[in-house]
Structure formats: structure tokens, C-alpha cells
Amino acid sequence: MILKGVSLPQKNEIFRLHRGQDVLYYSRRQAEKVLESFRQILHKFHEKNPGRSGLPVSELQSQTGQFIPEDLIRLAVKLGLDKRELRKEGDLLADAKFKTKLTDKKLKLLEQLEAIYREAQLSPPVEKELLDRFPINEKDLRELLRILREQGRIVLAEEKLFFHSDAIAEAEQIIREFFEKNGGMEVPEFKELTGTTRKYAIPLLNYFDNLGITSREENMRVPGPRLRNE
Questions:
Q1: Which of 213, 202, 212 lies closest to 172, judged by CA?
Q2: What values do phi and psi take at 34, rounded to 5?
Q3: Beta strand pairing call for 14-19 and 22-27
Q4: Using one digit for the tens of pLDDT, what is the confidence trace for 174-220?
């Protein structure tokens, strides 16, 4: 989470932050030091992974090799965004000047790979099927899948099982419309509504459970907390 509505201190003034009943104090110099660590990590990451969009904040913190208070991390990230030294893309942070770079061959494979997931809808291929179909090794395939995921074009439902984001959105809409008229959904009903098989229906329902769209009660799915609170 990024701090909002906060004015950062100038030079080395003290930044005051309230956390419940506690008051925390950080200097701008402290925030800039953390920001510089993040920028160095991102620079190395971008050089090594030119096709990937960035890193999540949690991974940036772990790569510093030291404990950094969460409030100070948020402050450093906000400073980087305000100074336009960092760029945020979804849950990822990147150096503001970085642009993803892929070879023409990999760009073509990336588009072909996404097209396969889009056309497959809720019955996507497994990794072995993709390796048999593409002139690519396992390492490069996983890199391309990671890029598609980071760009929000595919979604990881469970280990090594991806769906196109459009298919996930359509499945969520089907669930929402079902619960407008019904109180509970069984797996066979979900299969029939979405046109998929049990092989994919169970991971999909578990995915929506984790999102709070559905909740499992014995052998049925009922509206999850996100739906109930809307």
C-alpha cells in the first residue's frame, strides 16, 4: 500500500506518521537511503531481466538483506514515485526510465502464447502441451508466462495453471449473475455454466474462493465476502 495525501518533508526534515496510538518519526534522508537501495536492486534486475516489468515491493525489501519498517518502505516508495524515479505497474515497481525489451522472436512468441490462452478460454493448455507446440525450452517458456502474468494478460489459478484474464473476468461475471438468483452453486452447475471440465472447474472455484468471490460450504459454493459486502 502506498501512502496517500501525505506531504513529504524537504531536505532532512522529520516526517511524522501516526500508526494507531503510536507516533513514528522518519527523516527524509532515511527514506532516500531506502529509495536508493531499491533503485540499485531494480537496476540490476532490469539488466538481467529486460523482458520483465518490475518487482513487487516485498521482493525489493527481501533483496536489501536487512529489516526495513513497513512505514519507511511506503515512505521511500512514495518519494520515488513523487520524484518520478520509480514507476508502479499494478503490484510491481520499476525504474521510471526502464522499458521492457524483448527480441522480435520472443515478442512474436509472447503474442502467440497469449492468443492460445485467449482462444482456450477456460480449458487452457498445460506446460507440456506448450513445449510440444513451441520451438522453445522450459526456461524461456516460463519467462514468457511470467511476463504475460506480470502484464495482467494471464492469471495464475494454481501452480502452473494459467487462464487468460478475459476468461477469468467472464467466469466471474457468470458467478455474479448466478448468485443474483441463486443461493448456492455446485461444481456440476459451474461446469455447465462455463462449459469447462472438472479438471479446470475445481482450480477455478478455489481461485475465486481465494479472491473472496465465492466461499466453500461443504460441496457447494456460496457468495464470498467480497460479493456479500458489495
A1: 213
A2: -65, -40
A3: antiparallel
A4: 999 999 999 999 999 999 999 999 999 999 999 999 999 999 998 89
13 CA to centre of own chain: 35
In terms of Cβ atoms closer than 10 Å to its own Cβ (0-12, 13-18, 19+), residue 124 is buried
Q: Are the C-beta atoms of 117 and 163 separated by less than 8 Å?
A: yes
| Span 14-66, pLDDT tens digits | 777 777 777 778 888 888 999 999 999 999 999 988 888 888 888 888 888 77
In this prediction, residue 10 has a pLDDT band, given cuts at 50, 70 and 90, of low
What region, left, alpha or beta, does residue 23 occupy, with left being phi > 0 and alpha being psi -120 to 50 degrees? beta
Residue 212 CA to residue 87 CA, distance in Å, equals 29
For residues 187 and 201, give the distance between their C-alpha atoms in angstroms, rounded to a whole number: 7
| Alpha helix positions (H), the chain | 28-48, 57-64, 70-82, 104-120, 127-133, 138-150, 165-179, 187-194, 198-211, 225-228
Query: Is the pLDDT confidence value at 2 over 80?
Result: no
Q: What are phi and psi of 128, to 5 degrees?
A: -60, -40
Q: Which three cell numbers stand for residue 117?
A: 490462452
Name the grid cell of 27. Answer: 527523516
